[in-house]
Each structure stands twice: as C-alpha cells, then as structure tokens.
Amino acid sequence: MASYIARRVAYLIPIWLGITVLAFLISTLAPGDPARIYFQRTHGRQPSQQELQIVRDRFNLDKPVVEQYVSWLSGAVRGDLGVSFTTGKPVLDELLLRFPATLTLAFWATVVTVVIAIPIGILAAIKRNSVLDQVTRAMSMLGASIPSFWLALLLIILFSVKLQWLPASGQQGWESLILPALALGLGDAAVVARLTRSSLLEILNEDYVKTARAKGLSEGRIMIRHILRNGMAAVVTQIGLAFGFLLAYSAIVEVIFVWPGIGRLAVDAIGQRDYTMIQGFVVFAGSIFVLINLAVDLFYMWLDPRVTLGGQGAVAG
Amino acid sequence: MADTAGTVSASELQAPALLPPRPRLRQLVGDRTALAGLVILVLMYTAALAAPLIAPQDPNEQDVVNRYAPVSFEHPLGTDNLGRDELSRLLYGARVSLFTALGVGVAILAIGIVVGSIAGFAGGFVDGLLMRIVDVLLAFPSLLLALAITGMLGPGLLHLMIGMVAVWWTDYARMMRGLVLSMRERPFVESARAVGLPGPLVAARHVLPNIVGPVIVLGTVQTGRLLLALSALSFLGLGVQPPTSEWGAMLSEGQQYLASAPQLMVYPGIAITIAALGFNLLGDGLRDVLDPTMEH
Questions:
Q1: Where along chain B do its domains lie?
Q2: Inter-chain contact A29–B133, Cβ cutoff 8 Å?
Q3: pLDDT per residue over B198-248, tens digit each?
Q4: Which of chain B's residues have a Cβ under 8 Å away from the Cβ of A256?
Q5: CATH 1.10.3720.10 correct for B94-241+248-290
Q6: ipTM greater than 0.85
C-alpha cells in the first residue's frame, strides 16, 4: 500500500515536468516578438533597440530555448512563475488571488450534481424500466448534449431577465452563486445519475444481495447496508474526476457570469496575449488537475483495496 | 502453440470469428436509438451542404431597417441585430460547425491510429515515450489546453482546428494501442505471424478489421464532443471571425442582446444541442450493435 502510494506519487514527477514543457512550448507558439509586445504594453510606445535589449535581458529572451526553459522551470519549482505581461504583478499571486472563487464555484456545482443525480440514479435503478427510468435515460442523453455555456445563457434569460429573481453577474453573496453552479452542475448531474443507476444495477444482481434478500432482510436495509455502500465507489470516483474538469470547464461559465475566477483570468490573458500569465495558468491548472486525480485514485484504493496496482490501469484517467 | 501453427491452413486464418460480427446496416436501422441519431445527423449534414440552395437569404446581407424582425414568410426565424436572416445564418453556420467538427474528428482519428499502432506494435522505448506524451496531454482537460494553444496562435478557424487536433488525438491513440496489444495475443494473429506473414500484412489483414467497431463507436461520440468544444471555443471568440456565421459565434454575438432579443440565443443553441444529441444517440446505439461487450 505504502509502496503503491510512493510509486503513484513518483509517477507524478515526469507528468508534472511534461506539463511544464507543454506550458513553455505553448508560450513559444505566439507570433511576434514578446519583448516588443511587453514594452509596448507597459510603456505605450515603440521601444528603441536599446530598450528592447533591456527587456530581452530581463526575460532571458536572447538565450536558447532550452536555457530559457530551465531558468523558467527553476523559478517555477520555487513558486515563481514570473510576472504578468499586462499588470507586471507576479503570476502566481494573481492565480492564487482568483483561485478561491473558482474553487467555490466548482464546489457548489458539485453539490448541485450530487443532490440531483444520486437520488434520481438510485430511484431509476430501483424502479428499473419505469417511466422515471426512461426519463432519466432521456435526460442524461440530453444533458450530455447541451453545451453548458448555452445552459448558462438560458438560465440568465429565464431567472435574471424574465423573472428577475437572481443576478446575472458579479459576486453579491449566495444569490450570485446559484445560476453559475446550476449551469455547471446540471450537465454532470446527467452523467452521474446514469452512472449511479448502472453501478447499482450491477450490484442488485450480486449473490450477496440475493443472499441478504433470501435471509429476509427488508429492502431498505439491503439498499443501505449492501447496495449503496458497494455501489458508490465508482460514483464517488466519477464525481472526483468531474470536479477536476469543473475547475477547467468553469472558464466559460465564469466569463458569462463575470465570475472572478482563474478561468476568466485565463480567457482575459488570452485576449490580451499575456504570455506569462497563460503559461502560469497552464502549469497551475495542470498541477491542480493532476493532484485531484491522485486524490481520487488514493480514495478509490482506500474504498476498494483490491484495486490492482499495475502501472497503466491504475494511473489512467 | 507456435510449433503447431505451421500446419494451420490459410483458409482457417481468414476466418477469425472472435469479435462480434461486422455491423449490418439492417441491424443498425433496427436499433431505434442509432436510427434516430443517424436520421438527425443525415438531415443536419444534408441541410448544411444544401445551404446555398435552401437558405432563404444571403446570410451576411444586412438590412438595418428590418432588425430583430419577427418570424415571417420572408424570414422564417426572424432577423438578427443587423437585420440578417437568422435561418440563413444558421444554415451557413451549420457548414462551419458541423464540417469543422467532422474534419477535426477525422484528423485526430488518423493521428491517433498512427501513433497508437506505432506504440502498440513497436513496444519498448518508443511505446514508453509516446504513452508518456499521451499521459501529459491527458493530465489536462482538453478544452483548456485547446483554449491556451489557440489563444497563443491567435483567433481564427484554422488556429482553432490546430489547437483542437493537437490535444484531442490522445483518446484514439490510447485505445488503438490497447486494441493492438490485445490483438497481438489473439491466436489467429499469433498463427498468422507464425506462418511467416510479415508484420504490416498481419496488421492490415487481421488486426485492423477487428478494431473497426470500437473505433467507430468512439469516433461518433468523440465528434459530438468536438462539436460542443468547438462551439464553446468559438463562443469565446477564438474561432471564425465576423461576419462569417458559426453556431458558437452566433451565440457569442447574440449574448450582447440577451435582454432585448433572447430569441437570437435560442436558435443556435438548439442547433448545437440537436446535432450533439444526434452524435450521442448514434454512438449509444452503435455501441449496442457493434460492441456489446463494451461497458454501457
């Protein structure tokens, strides 16, 4: 067990290095001379040759790419992701400042998912092939097909424009959270409800459930003691993974609801061609995502110690 | 096994009934889910192709007097904020949205098959290296990475397609590698190798035909996802530039008039949802028909 955890964590190191390489390569894709762009951005005029040279020296832009990467990486491991091309402030500070808002949104979106999906999934499994089951199936198909940003816009039209119940933007207390959390959570709810249903159905046919029934235990007791406990592992895993994706997919929803999270920060950075910020965002988001997957893996293993400790399978996802 | 394989006749090697039989059109049509998806997609792609023939107006022709016109015979879905015919823009937008998703889908399929096959057949260091690249790309939500790459290259449909292709080929590569590895162990493949057929021939004659099913299932669902991702990225302004119409871009324009003309937000969203639903229904049905062993 301990050796598995150690191996699993050690496996993260090459992946994380890969992420940093990727982030660095992405920033070299940009057309134009970054030194010139930086100078124009910060000074509002064309730089002279000498001024260009100063900027190049400062950001190591004259050095070979590999050397640039190494010096950037040595900063990154110490938590220094450079300064923003637009504001001049440290990239990591800006990301950390905005991260709690994204985290809050992702958390409440997950709450929406769980509260809606689990009861529906359980009911659909118990009353298999009933109308409810059919409706759940249809809804989950629809949920996988509706773009979440469009759902966000529809929610705004209905609840902000027509009914005027909830604000369409900003961060004015819990009312502001409802629509973005719904927009993000509903799509996943469809997927999780379906998964809950199928993993419960699998267990309903297991021998130990039949045994419990033969012993004369009440249906409610069987459900709680035997089925839910065993059926939730896959569901919890799915929710954990979905949480990682939420952090990322919230970008568009954050833009729509003018929510001050890291997703909107990234989209703004792209609009302003803020290379260092985009670079930092890719590393930051990638690190978070990798850590969430690690947590999900370990949690899954804790739930079900039989999980094989093979390299590929256990790490996949 | 290997020492007896030499006596296996060629005809026996030709008949490896190990995976589900090849799809039959009749079977596919018999599956209502798949049929519904197929009908939706055929109708939408046909409408997109026929846009110049069936669109009532020029999609870019502005008519400032008739802005936000209601539904009429002349404008079956009304007009937008610049007086352009909404239905015509939807039809022309379908060309960009649907065919971009399909184009990206085909491109990543090709890359994934090549990379996955190389990894699967070569093994060793090559396999390790390629799969670590896949792992790194999968360590990110694809949409985010595509967003960053396209954002760096600058907005535009071509850049958007490059960004999407660069990140989305990984699923196919991983799947392809897995299939190749599992195929290599199958008796009929071992036999074919044992009788001395060259590797690439074994691959082409015996391995590839057996993995068509799972690849088609993944491809269908994947193309639906690509359509959603494409519309999201172009909603953010990274795709086609005005005045070209595309569903995500139409939503982006419409968002500015959300309070006064919510109908402009509704039509493109419905179009995206129906198309994505078509892919999902077809994928779901195909899975039942082609690959009953696959997890549902």
A1: 94-241+248-290
A2: no
A3: 766 776 776 677 778 888 888 998 999 999 999 999 999 888 888 888 999
A4: 255
A5: yes
A6: no
